[in-house]
Amino acid sequence: MRGIVMLSLEPRTVALWAALLTVTVTAVGQICLKHGVNLVQFYRVAQPAERAPWESVWALGTNPFVLGGIGLYGASTLLWIFVLSRLPLSQAYPFVGLSIVITSVFGALLLGERLSPGQVLGIVMVSAGVLLVVKA
Known about the structure:
Number of helices: 6
Radius of gyration: 19 Å
Oligomer: single chain
Strand content: under 5%
Shape: globular
């Protein structure tokens, strides 16, 4: 067939990519939640002090970024179930460490958060550790 590329990946390779996708979706969910909470905090500061506390809860519960973050957590849970059905836990779970790496990098890039030299070193060490486990 011309123009069609067929990829044949081993089940383990598919599961490893799914694990990476899972932690990336989780990290994006964290960024959405943080951005939504920041927006609501700004809203609260801009409003008079006599506002009822439930208004902040309502503002969080109706914030599209917060709702999006919650939805992404649901999606990542479904992806994680797929991963766990195809990889031993000892190979799958180290990918959770990558959520620290990806969330920190996204926080710096998308939210302007500062990474200290110690955090950067930790990110490198966690990444190396996950790579060692995956290659074993």
